[in-house]
Amino acid sequence: MNRCSRVSDTAVCGRALTLLATMFPLSEKSAVNLRGHYNLSNITTFADHEDASGSAVADFKLYTKFWGLQKYLSRAYDVEDYAVWEKVYESMQQIMEAFEGTPVASTREADGNEEKRAVKFLTDPQLFRLQLGDGFFRRHILVQFLILLRHLRIVQKPEEAFDSSKSHTESAVNRRVLSLLDSIGPSGKTFGTGMTRAFYWEKHWIAWKANGCKPFDRAPVPFEASEQRRKRKPIGSDVGKPKKASKILSSHEDDDNGKPWALPSEEERKEDLKSWQNSAPTVELIQSQLTDDKDEEDPSLKRKNMKPYVWKTLRVLQRKNFLLVRRIAEERFDLDAILTAGKSENEN
What's this model's pTM, rounded to 2 decimal places? Predict the structure, then answer.
């Protein structure tokens, strides 16, 4: 990791960090940064005086505020002071106004492949106007804004860190930053939703660090004592012993011959089938139910408008009179019409 540059070898460093993250357990405290120290060695240098020969003279004030804001973005604890927050808030508002007034270019090349760039940007004043319209550059700056606002929400209460007016609240600034992220294509809204979800996960990660980085490993399940475990018969212990005849599951356990495993007779099976067939509703019962429903005012409570009841009734009618199958399609599943047609056919 020390030999590779995170600017020129970004992909290699990222794969190495991913490999290390999978090798160590979840409760490993390496690189957790318990005290929350910031990397103060990465200092952003830029032109602090205006060059008359340059072409970015008109935007020089915005240029100095833009790159001067990096000092506070890398030292978020300095912004906890309300006087410093007022200065940072003013610079953030001007930068977001510049983003809103500059058309943004897509972060994808014309051939459809994503651009592969380093996360280090030049601070030349002549490139500043082009950088404002670069979606890749703009997305990195807005993410820095979200990280700063997230830090202020964690360390202090909103009424202590911000002014009470609506324009100075953290939530208003946060919504504006997310709106700018959504406008950067492609998949702007997906990226903004992903950042919100990442901050939600970070909330639990910070709580884990505050509680002393308790291990995630679960305690092993206690092994049951040997006397409490179910005893198994040794293999071959039942060899040579006569096996008991298994009973056939039947409701007719006591027949005339006194054999509990005997199968039911033909007459008994016919009686069971007959009793099962008689359990289905009759046509007369269905007609009486439909007649009773005529007094119901609510159509949804009538049985003929209930799909399960119609389906079961049609099954019963088909079993009673198979000729009614033709009437079902003709009468469009109208039970009253089907019953009337079936009654007339029976009379004929």
Answer: 0.55
